Amino acid sequence: MRVTHLSLTDFRNYAGAEVPFGAGPNLIVGRNGQGKTNLVEALGFLSTLSSHRVSQTGAMVRSGQDAAIIRARLEHNGRDILAEVQINRSGLNRAQINRSVIKTRELPRYFSSVLFAPEDLALVRGDPSGRRRFLDQLLVLRNPRLSGVLTDYDRVLKQRNTLLKSARASGLKTTQLGTLDIWDERLVALGSEIIDARADLVAQLLPPLHNAYQAVAGADHGPNLVASLSILGADEESDETGSPAATPPIDGSGTADTFRTALAGLRRKELDRGMTLAGPHRDDLVFELNNLPAKGYASHGESWSFALALKLASAELLRRDSSSGDPVLILDDVFAELDQSRRRRLAAAVTGYEQVLITAAVFEDVPAVLAAHAIHIHAGAVVENPVVDGGPTDTAPAAEDGAARG
Asked: Where does ATP bind (predicted)?
């Protein structure tokens, strides 16, 4: 799969943009603040329905406007697809495929991409929520049906939490909470499917993760992924400064029973706190290097290599299993963080993908093998004939509101 053309209207600092892309490597270059990252953020949104930079989609709408539009022409096995999404500052977003209206959550089934950006360092060093989101986005890319399961789980979780809070406020006894048992069964059914799907994904990620880490870092530090499950007693709040204690995997056939038992044991504590204390919404994934948790022990370079290897492993899974072929691989502002040897190794690792999109502030940071097709950006516009030395890419002023890092 590849993107042949991207059109933006009122997205970030772009009043309008028309950007053609070719097969293989595409380098998007320009000074910081000109809009490079905005281009790849738009494409990332089409495949994940989220931004790697902000949690609120309204932030992607250009200042003073009510909506932004992303249109991408895609090519897969000789078939052309026009994917479109309108991001509304208020109200629901809207999506179309080949001019026919679809549910927005169905967009990821038409476009697959894997994006790595500096923000992904938080996968290693940040909160469990980021690691859960990483797993769930990859699950949906591989199996779009799971989007509905995740949405239904969130809905049931909110209903159950509302009931728990009401019970706490009214002082109801556990024997008076028959309705809670009904929500428990729905939570267990949906949550067990998510837990098992994540466990299967982690098992499949491990071999390509090992290979990708060695390819990027040039060393074998034994990268590993260990599930930390709340239904087995792990508590993401137990240690705010370090990684939670890893818990062993459980037999998939017993996940529902284990979940049900955990809820029963936590019933009094949940009523006291007015919230659900076990389930996939409170699980974590422990990253290990040399048998130690990467969070708290890994150096900056090791953490960076782990996060990058995790995304490359994700791309490898998608290219192996997806009916749409290679995902579009997006590397946002990556090469500036790497020394020359790691740049060469990363270039060698990604050149086999059908399409790679790379952003960089400095043209020379990117190995020549990835820089043959360059797209120069200045102040929210594609520059047709840039003057690299002393020209727009070197002396451009900051872009207007909404450019952010790109």
From this structure: 30-37
Residue 127 and residue 93 share a domain: no
Residue 13 assigned ligand-binding role: no
Is 155 marked as binding a ligand? no
pLDDT tens string 368-393: 999 989 999 998 888 876 655 444 44
CATH classification of the domain holding 245: 1.20.1050.90
Q: What is the pLDDT of residues 236-252, one digit of tens each?
A: 666 544 445 556 666 65
Is 30 assigned to a binding site? yes
Among 49, 44, 86, CA closest to 68? 86
- Residue 102 and residue 189 in one domain: no
273 labeled part of a ligand binding site: no
User: Which residue, 44, 32, 96, is CA-closest to 360?
Assistant: 32
35 known member of a binding site: yes
- Quick check: 406 pLDDT over 90? no
Residue owning tokens 């040399």: 290
Whole-number mean pLDDT of the chain?
A: 88
Is 313 part of a structural domain of the chain? no
151 phi, psi to nearest 5 deg = -65, -45
Would you tell me how many other CB atoms lie within 10 Å of the CB of residue 368? 9
**What amino acid is encoded at 97 in this protein?**
I
Least confident range from 36-45, 49-58, 177-186, 392-401: namely 392-401
Give the DSSP letter string of 37-73: HHHHHHHHHHHHSS-SS-S-GGGGBPTT-SEEEEEEE
37 is in an annotated binding site: yes
